Amino acid sequence: LLIVYGIIILSVSSIPGHSIPRFVLLSWDKLLHIIEYSFLGFLSVSSFNDKSKNQIIIISIVCLCFAILDEIWQSFIPGRFSSGLDV
């Protein structure tokens, strides 16, 4: 399920910018990112039996790296822009 969700995130990130409806409020964009990556974190933690502090830190770092790579990926999609604030 985690891998499928990661593929869904990258697929949505691959949609050209002109095909995505614009939100009036900038905060909606950030709220959607928070929800999207919170769910990714939840799925990541749920995928492992060991939920020690070190394991959660490693999972958090991996999710952060995925978010950074997703933003870099978006910079190659026409009409999409990469933003450090989205990470």
Can you summarize this structure?
The protein has 87 residues and is an all-alpha fold.
Descriptive overview:
It is a single chain. The chain has 87 residues and is an all-alpha fold. It has one domain. Helices cover 63% and strands 0% of the residues. It is built from three helices and no strands. Helix 1 runs antiparallel to helix 2. The chain is elongated, with a radius of gyration of 14 Å. The model has no long low-confidence stretch (mean pLDDT 80). This is VanZ-like domain-containing protein. Keywords: Membrane, Transmembrane, Transmembrane helix. It comes from marine metagenome.
Helix content: 55-70%
> What is the total number of structural domains?
1
The residue-averaged pLDDT reads: 80
Q: What is the number of strand segments?
A: 0
Order of helices and strands: HHH
Outline, from the CA principal axes? elongated
**How big a fraction of the residues is strand?**
under 5%
Annotation field: number of helices: 3
Structural class: mainly alpha
Distance between the ends: 22 Å
Characteristic terms for this protein:
elongated, mainly alpha, 87 residues, 63% helix
What is the topology?
Layout: H1 2-13, H2 26-46, H3 53-74
